[in-house]
Prior knowledge:
Blueprint: H1 2-30, E1 46-47, E2 54-57, E3 63-67, H2 68-71, E4 72-73, E5 78-83, E6 89-94, E7 97-102, E8 106-116, E9 119-130
Parallel strand pairs: 2-9
Antiparallel strand pairs: 1-4, 3-7, 5-8, 6-7, 8-9
Amino acid sequence: MIDSAVQRIRSFLPRAGAVLLGLAVAVSLSACGDDDDGGSGMQGPTVEQSISSQSVTSDQGTVDVADLNNVFSGENLSFQVSSSASDVVSASTDGSTLTIDPQNGGSAAVSATASNDAGSAQTSFDVEVTLPDAPGAPNGQ
Length: 141
């Protein structure tokens, strides 16, 4: 009877080992790739430096404010910018250069967002647009 039990255990051990090995592989693979980055190992963007507030006049024309590759860190970044008041100042990008174009007097917040497959990061800065002095008026009036 003992011999029969030993033989059943011996026949069961290879199958039990295969099942345990399969479980170990499944657990190992599930830990490898769900980092919200598509399994690529890519890190989401981060803000490395802030953008200073800007003071411009409405007749100044476009102003290159920052190279967004210096503002954000990360791989394969794409950039989007927006203004809280596009009638005061519009914002755009040309490659990684953030540009503002003053329109009318007032204040606005400009936001810049960097994105990649692993996430996004955002920063913003204030823009104060003043109207130019009227022709012939003394400065400051």
